[in-house]
Amino acid sequence: MNRRRSPASTGGVPGLKPALLTAAAFRQTLLKLSQRLTRQEREFAVIALNILEYDTVRTSLGEAAAEQLNNLGRDLCLANIRGADRLCNPQPGHFLIVMPDSSEQSAAAAVDRLTRLIADAKTHFKHTQLRASCSSRAAYCQLSGCDPEAMLLEVGYRFDEPDNLEYIHQPSASGSPTGFRGAFSSWVSRYDNLQPQRETVINEYLIQTRLTAADIWSGQPVQIKVTRLASGREFDEATLDLILRRTRVLQTVDHPGIAATTDFHIKDKQQLYLVGKLQSAPSLQSFIASPSQVTQPQLLDWGTQMCNSLIYLQTVMPPVIPPALSPNLFIVDKATRLILVDYEIPYLFPLWHHAAAVSSEEMQAVAQGRPIAAYNPIIRSFASVMASIARASRQCDKRLTDMLNRLQEDALPAELNTIYKVRSALKELSEPPKIDER
Fold first, then answer.
1. CB-based contacts of 354: which residues, under 8 Å, 6+ apart?
2. Helix axes of 296-315 and 398-406: crossing angle, nearest 10 degrees
């Protein structure tokens, strides 16, 4: 087989065989493949193999014999996977393999081949013959909404820490615990002087309360948004699992135009606590209501900034589709940059936010920058925000007015039906109009 030559060049562990990764390196590989899927539409799969006899051998023959059985499985996997494949041995007797450029069918074929090879192999420990058989599971990217953590859950694993893979026995969310580490009372002790600010009824299903607090660890003020069901009921296990996975994704958001989530927890399976930096800047709504005018170049720059933030959210895995935009969803910092805030609810609570009811196929289309009807309200709301700024500032030339009017038509024009195309159109408007010299 074509084996990769240098472990140092692949994120492998120095001194071990090529293609054998630590849990942390395996996680980074999954994230890179997810991003590549978004950019290049190159598919991948994850397979899991667990040696069924491992625990029995360890109990009856001891740790050394069990280790020998683990090494048998590990070495056979390394000798029979492709050069591009990556193996992780997160705990003895357990193997995870990520397969770039692999279809669902080729992943299934690999599972069949590897399980047969392991079943046919044997080793000896102190004159005792050891043989192995495997349970196996496979997850394919296109069936998991391009979500690497969902793929891991399908094969029975999750990251309980960034560098530690946990085997959860059940390949689905229904059998897993909440996954939120540590008691809530211990977690919340990090935040001092919690002060309620206001309560908002988001819709008939969700209520959100805002608090301010001081982060004892950093010494910085923070804002805490507490979201609960209006019915007062607990979140079920599937919802808790989705919240856990997607809140971890929100923690990875790193963009100057988007407010970040820094910490989170669940209280009594009923209330999600989201922590972020306390934002003291004025909202865009209040900013444009002030006497100062926004110039045409500033208006176009703000439009480009909004597009950049939306495009970034589309590249997150799975992509974040925010609620319909409004001037109250943006704040204006000291450098007059727009920062998107309060965009998390449709992503974390899709069952209770109708605007975000999109299929896995539609989520993939969003991630790839392709037009879908479910994203049209975001584009139209973008045009509405831009029109609001233009009306308040009285700074909007005819070309921009025409473009915003076209974005409000019954059917979006083909050249403006994705946020990428809208950004390109704004950049063209930023250039001086061409003069016909004939």
1. none
2. 30
Model-level pTM? 0.62
pLDDT digits (tens, 9 = 90+) for 55-65: 878 877 788 98
Average pLDDT of the segment spanning 194-222: 92
**To which H or E segment does residue 44 belong?**
strand 44-51
Q: Residue 238 carries which side chain, given as an amino acid letter? A: A
Q: SS3 letters for 83-111?
A: CCCEEEEEECCEEEEEEECCCHHHHHHHH
Q: Residues, the chain, total?
A: 438
Q: What residue type is 386 in one-letter code?
A: M
Q: How far apart are CA 79 and CA 125, in angstroms?
A: 22
Other Cβ atoms closer than 10 A to 166? 17
C-alpha 77/C-alpha 81 separation (Å) is 6
**Contacts of 78 by beta carbon, 8 Å cutoff, 6+ apart:** 17, 18, 19, 20, 87
Does residue 223 register a pLDDT over 80?
Answer: yes
CB atoms within 10 A of CB 198: 8
pLDDT tens digits, one per residue of 281-329: 999 998 888 766 788 888 999 999 999 999 999 877 678 889 999 999 9
